[in-house]
Amino acid sequence: MSMKIGLMLPKLEKVPSAKENKDTTSWLAEYWNLGPEVGSDRPGSNKEYWTEMAKVWNTEEDKARRQLCANCEYFSDTPRVLKSLEAVPYNEMDATGGGRGFCSRFDFICHNLRTCQAWESNDPMCDEEGED
Ligand code: SF4
Asked: Could you identify the atom of ligand 1 that is nearest to the CA of residue 28?
């Protein structure tokens, strides 16, 4: 009996329309601190944003900076998912986010270099703050 590995991967139920995606992005930026607007992995970048997120998560700024969509448990950027997302035209958020992924918590396109306050670690070996 053969096993289909694809069945074990998270499923992308529905690709949002461009409008749904934009509306969700705006709502998350307003109510869930989705950001930063211009993603960057340079140390010290977006200081104001990461200082705020450190407060939100009650942690230090350097730890907050490591909690990215890219390593959130709700994030998926498998080739299959990225192919599905190609149906949604690129917008200004794609230009500065460091690469697309799908957020299964909020059903929209998020990006490697951003985060939001609903972040959860995807690493089973880490504690709640993403630390070993
Ligand atoms: S829930 Fe996770 S993947 Fe979704 S926007 Fe927030 S940090 Fe990114």
From this structure: 5
Residue 60, Cβ neighbours under 10 Å: how many?
10
The residue whose CA is least distant from atom 6 of ligand 1 is 116
Q: Which residues of 104-125 are buried (b: 16+ CB within 10 A; e: fewer)?
A: bbbbbbbbbbbbbeebebeeee
Which of 44, 54, 39 shows the shortest CA–CA distance to 96?
39
In whole angstroms, give the CA distance from residue 77 to residue 71. 11
Residue-range domain boundaries for the chain: 15-38+47-111
Looking at residue 102, what is its pLDDT?
97
pLDDT reported for residue 6: 45
pTM of the model: 0.87
State residue 44 phi and psi, 5-degree precision: 85, -10
How many Å lie between the centroid of ligand 1 and the Cα of residue 76? 10
